[in-house]
Amino acid sequence: MTSSIFALSMPWAGAVGWFSFQVAAAAGVGVNQPASQVVIAAAVEEPAKLVPICLVAIIAPGRVRRLLVQDWLVLGVACGAGFMAVEEVARRLMYIVANTPGFQLSKAICPEDPAGIVECMHAHTFSLWPLSDAFPGPVSYAGHAVVTGLVAVSIGLARHLWWRARHHHPAVGVCLRCAALGLPLGTLWVAIVDHMARNAVSTAGGWLAGVAPVVKAWGLTSNEAPWPVVGTTSTLAGSGQGRGWMLLVMLVVALLLDARVMRLGGYTHALTGAGRSGPGGSWGPPGGVVGRWGADVAEAAAAARTGAHRLRLALARAAAARRPRLLAQAWAEHRIARDLAARRQLDAGPHRWATSALAAAALLTAAWVIYTVVPPLVTDLDHRLTDPPPTFWLAGILDLLGALWESMSPTEKTALALIGTAAVLLSGGTLGLALEAGLGLATVLDAARPTATLMRDPWGTTNHYLTTHNSLEIAADAALTAAALVPGGKTLHGAGYATKAGRSTGRAAVEEAGTKAARAAEHSAARTRPQSIAESQAAHNNAHRGTQRANTPTEKPRSADKPGPGPVDERADRGDGRDVKGRYADGNAGAHMYDQSEAKGLEEYLDDLDADGVSVSEVIEDKHLAHINGAPQGRYYDRLIQREDGTWVGLEVKSGQSPYHGTQRAADNMVSPDNPARVRLDDGRTIEITEVQMKRVEKQQ
Prior knowledge:
- This protein is α+β, with helices and mostly antiparallel strands.
- The protein folds into 4 domains: 2-261 and 353-386, no CATH class; 300-348; 392-509, no CATH class; 529-548 and 571-697, no CATH class.
- It contains 27 helices and 9 strands.
- The protein has helices at residues 2-27, 34-48, 51-59, 61-65, 69-97, 101-109, 114-120, 144-164, 170-199, 228-236, 243-264, 267-272, 289-321, 325-346, 354-372, 374-386, 392-407, 410-426, 431-446, 448-456, 458-468, 471-484, 489-509, 511-520, 529-551, 595-611, 662-670, and strands at residues 202-204, 214-216, 616-620, 625-627, 635-636, 639-643, 648-655, 677-680, 686-697.
- The strands form 2 sheets. A 7-stranded mixed beta sheet has the order 3-6-7-9-8-4-5.
- A hairpin with a 5-residue loop joins strand 8 (677-680) and strand 9.
- Helix 8 (144-164) runs parallel beside helix 11, helix 11 crosses helix 14 (325-346) and helix 19 (431-446) packs across helix 23.
- The relative contact order is 0.06.
């Protein structure tokens, strides 16, 4: 059976190669790419090498049920050896026959004899000794024969644990059967990780005689494991080291475990004809753990001694009678006695069809995993290895810093700048350096969110800046930027920020009054919709007038004959091209241009809601910046409308043929109940816009 498995594994190796090409095609990645070499070679080859054993289990399930643990080990080594023989021969032939630059360089540098060129090319060689280090380096791979032998012996050990669970307490039996289910899967996973680690090793140099190559673990995957679970498993499993020793240890353990099966099955009795109560009898195991394991060791030694003795006698009789058939007959009797003992213990229960069903289920599961799970993993790894490194992670950090800065009050911002100044001053820095550090910290945090927006969408952000700033504002920003690059520039820039902070302090002073005004404007059942809208608009207008009064310097009382202060200009530029209500300020190209169109659009939208039987709780005419997660920049909606169910709608009004360009449309399409646009109002409230409506009206004169 071992020779049949070995012979079947050799042509099957070609089929495994064809499967690997199909998986690479499904992933859209070439087989010569690092992602394919690391993932496909490991995830496809390691389970596929066990297919010959699964086929035998389907065709001859009774024979597989009687396999001992040591039989599984030998069959696994045969599967891996047959696969490795074909793979290594094909690899060397393709490398030598192909006219590659690497081989041309080898011909020019390496010796002419075959042994010398193999050693010069650092080609791996294998031997029958399982402890030979075929793949030296930081990550080792013992070869297909040893690794597949370990996976197969884990299946045999799981089968033995399942059988032994019948002879223990039910609780212990449950634990043994759970271990039997997890042991083969865990061993196969370690084999896949070992294969991944080996294929991810990069080797550089070493072409010159006496110069060792530079070997790096995970060199093909940017010097780190492709996934954390792979790196953790490789580290815990010893990076593939010592697999040959593990195979020898498992062989000894298999002999001891199989000895109990042979003793309970009457193997020694069948060979020697001794009584059932003799040392080789099949009575129950002795009491105690030590007694049972001692009996297993004694049975293994007795079986080995008896078998060797019978074979020696058969060889002597065959030589004396000159009949070699006597030796073959003695060997056949030995195999029959062994098979009968295994049949009595391992193949005595019902449901013998379960072996074929389990083998077929294992084949189908492996095929499903290979064709559905592996290709996406290969594609993901290839993108991470070949695509340029993303810079959005830095933009995310800047967004977090910007959100933190915007959530702080003016007092907290000033305290943070003073803390930075004090830290530099107490560490021995000069007063000028300390002031530059503190004000520079405030400047950096204030510019964090715009910088993040610029990193995500440079062209869109630049276009938005140019369309919302006039020439004078652009010149002023350029002058401030230039001033920040010369000594003392941070102080000038910080002074500009201090002016903005003072303005914010004035708005905060009337926050309480604005809150009370907003509460007075809430919807009630007794009010009609027009009354509610009018009151809410009046409340917001009062809040803005309070803000402007707070920003106006306090003057001493004037005499009756002197004129008082003039009226406040609500259309004055607040610093960003818009007035205190968020509208285009006087002097801006868009000032007053769309007021009538926006009012017309609001009127039509409210009529649509009336027709649908939906009432409105509040309408906000002021324009506020709405922040949308994933959008390159914020949005200013023409009107904010709260419906009776409490949801907010952002209304965008387009006049005539005014374009609804891609940046606005893309940002509006991102708004949903799961990703709302957040707006902070002047009265301190933060609302969430869950829907955007666009109304197109005729251009108003």
